[in-house]
């Protein structure tokens, strides 16, 4: 088991972030869906239990082309799907990611608390136990200055270059975390458990590297999309999520684009005249 606490500082308020995060999740889902793959939203509904109330979502991530070809050949049915349950009782949220093939041997748990007027300085925002605190590693994510993969870089999603026309926020320069207002922090306690002899440590470290990269890229986009989500209400977001679900279902149902080779063969077959 490998535990890290990611602290992501953002140039917005907690109320604004609630809308911004849901908008950005919907947009990211659309970008990753198509040709039989991507995000399938099974449930998105209010919940209420002994721990409180909020919004419950259940999603399936269809990932076939996202893994190496050798794994696609060897992996059994269900191994290339991830199941995500999320309980959003904002400002506290919990997400559990599992896999049908790995079952109890794989679990990725993310527990998040969103805190206004915080710059990532709270040492135990989530009230973790002494045992967890002894294991966790704290990672402060700077969305403007942390390095990202060249393949992930987009000028329009660069906080160092972006200025919001509607709010005047940005660009985020140098020591922005210490000076920017408004400000809030997402405290994300991520626990990865991958029980597979000989691979556990390597895979758990790999998953955390992926999570850090995802958090960085996601929040860079969230900031640079300020003019898209700013002013939206929660009613607007729920309506947008419902439309997005329909778009995702339609996009996922479409067949993947034919390869160049397949297309060329089809055209050749249409133009060739059979020998007599």
From TrEMBL:
GO MF annotations in UniProt: phosphatidylcholine binding; phosphatidylcholine transporter activity; phosphatidylinositol binding; phosphatidylinositol transfer activity
Stored Pfam families: IP_trans
Domain (Phosphatidylinositol transfer protein N-terminal): residue spans on this chain: 1-246
Domain of life: Eukaryota
Biased composition (Basic and acidic residues): 243-253
InterPro entries to which the protein is assigned, alphabetical: PI_transfer (IPR001666), PI_transfer_N (IPR055261), START-like_dom_sf (IPR023393)
Disordered: region residues: 243-276
Gene Ontology terms: cellular component: cell periphery; cytoplasm
Name the UniProt record assigns to this protein: 10571_t:CDS:1
